[in-house]
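Budget justification aside, the reviewers requested a transparent look at the raw inputs and outputs of the sequence design task funded under Objective 1. We therefore reproduce one unedited record. The lines immediately below are the structure tokens for a 250-residue chain.
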């Protein structure tokens, strides 16, 4: 942009809807057996029409590189040596949470043998910290158990696929570097890299099947928006990590 600064920014707002069964690939649907309702019921896909499993409404990525402009040549040599040669770079990532689908703990109350019955949502506040009341182990309440109940016998529940949203993901990685020039053809670069600069914990999704653990978050998220939900290759969700390096150019 100016004065040694380069920026790359991207923001995406999106909404992906489909009528595929939850957690099903397009190539693996066999008849209607994976849907909540059997295909003999009119409009049998109505509880499976909702946000796609990969739907994230807001995605932001910002990367930057800043090289400190050379200090004035008429400044004292010691001052030029201290100030010149510094640079910094980094990347910031954010995306909104995963779509959540709430399941009944009595998976076949509908007596259709689909074993995928949904919970009944009362319409009151779906989110809250009450799920962890009285729990002594690490726990974060996300969904409100009082707002959901088991589907009565002969019914399928009323929660539509992806009706609720899990915790968002955010991460900032950055680095600082210093170049020491010895001769025209020889220089030394010192660099300090920091992963998860703010030491921020990205929470995993809560338990979404009614029961004693329903609504609780008891793990951190392994996902990265560049690799998709469920990925286990996300070092950014580790505690803050710093690494130092030296590179000799000649």
């Amino acid at each position: 942009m100016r004065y040694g600064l380069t920026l790359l920014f991207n923001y995406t707002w999106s909404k992906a809807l489909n009528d595929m069964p939850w957690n099903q690939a397009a190539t693996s649907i066999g008849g209607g057996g994976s849907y909540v309702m059997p295909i003999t019921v009119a409009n049998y896909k109505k509880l499976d029409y909702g946000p796609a499993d990969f739907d994230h409404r807001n995605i932001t990525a910002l990367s930057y590189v800043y090289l400190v402009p050379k200090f004035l040549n008429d400044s004292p040599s010691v001052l030029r040596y201290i100030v010149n040669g510094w640079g910094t770079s980094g990347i910031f990532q954010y995306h909104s949470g995963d779509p959540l689908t709430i399941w009944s703990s009595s998976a076949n109350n509908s007596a259709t043998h689909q074993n995928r019955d949904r919970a009944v949502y009362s319409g009151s506040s779906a989110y809250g910290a009450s799920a962890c009341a009285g729990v002594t182990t690490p726990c974060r309440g996300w969904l409100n158990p009082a707002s959901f109940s088991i589907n009565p016998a002969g019914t399928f529940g009323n929660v539509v696929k992806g009706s609720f949203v899990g915790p968002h993901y955010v991460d900032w990685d950055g680095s600082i570097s210093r170049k020491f020039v010895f001769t025209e053809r020889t220089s030394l670069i010192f660099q300090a890299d920091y992963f998860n600069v703010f030491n921020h914990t990205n929470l995993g999704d809560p338990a979404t099947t009614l029961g004693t653990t329903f609504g609780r978050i008891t793990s951190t998220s392994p996902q990265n928006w560049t690799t998709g939900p469920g990925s286990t290759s996300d070092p950014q969700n580790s505690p803050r990590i710093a690494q130092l390096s030296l590179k000799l150019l000649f």
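The chain has one domain: 5-249. The first strand starts at residue 5 and ends at 13. Computational costs for records of this kind are itemized in the attached budget.
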